[in-house]
Design goal:
Elements (H helix, E strand, L loop, with lengths): L13 H20 L16 H15 L3 H26 L10 H24 L2 H25 L5 H7 L17 H7 L4 H18 L10 H5 L10 H24 L1
Length: 262
Amino acid sequence: MERFEIGKFRGFSTFDLKILGIILMFIDHIHQMFVPMGAPNWLDWFGRPVATLFFFVSVVGFSHTRSKEKYMLRLYLGMIIMALGSYVLQMKVGYEEVQLMNNIFRDLLTGALMMYGIDKLSEGISGKKISKLILGIVLLLFPIVTSFILFALMGNTATMFVAVWASNFIPALLFTENSFLVLLIPLMYIARKQRWLQCLLISLVAVFFFVQGSTQWMMIFAVIPIALFNGEKGKEMRNFFYFFYPLHIWILYLISAYIYTH
């Protein structure tokens, strides 16, 4: 990957991008949890580039991990723990003013599954292996097909409850926190050797949201640190993120519930 160096500034490492994403995410979640107390809407602006930053980091991480299967397994466990933990917490606390819908693990897992599909598709084409070609297509389509299946089941009162619970365990594209925006992950993975193209893809999606009148257009600001990514890993903090993400959301939720009810 390209290496940026301006004076003593040598660009951002993966660690730096994660820290930046965590800081912006924390501010955004303060807005989410304290809306009932009048948290200003401009706090939400800080969170608009966050998903894009984590998607880019996911592409980098998936490209360099020694075991892509273990990478996806960690995300799957994170997705389940987050979903069940949030459900239990809301049931116990009973604070309905804020709904815990957050689960970035589902977004990242869905993206990783599609990246894995791209790998298998590539292996099938280069090695002329029909089995890997089919597997690649199945993996790429799985998050999309399961989305429509779950929606169909939810439209039937007899299967609605099962479908709602099943959505917590299946990486379905339309049930992710960022919906179609998650498609940026496989797209950036295809363009992983061309940073300019990754930044262009982000910019085009940002323009789409701008035309729609959504503040999500502010995701374009993620282009700056991504363009300055130096290709280095930096400090190891994988386990920190897996713990920090659910814990900070749950703690902010409990603080908000306490303040609102006292």
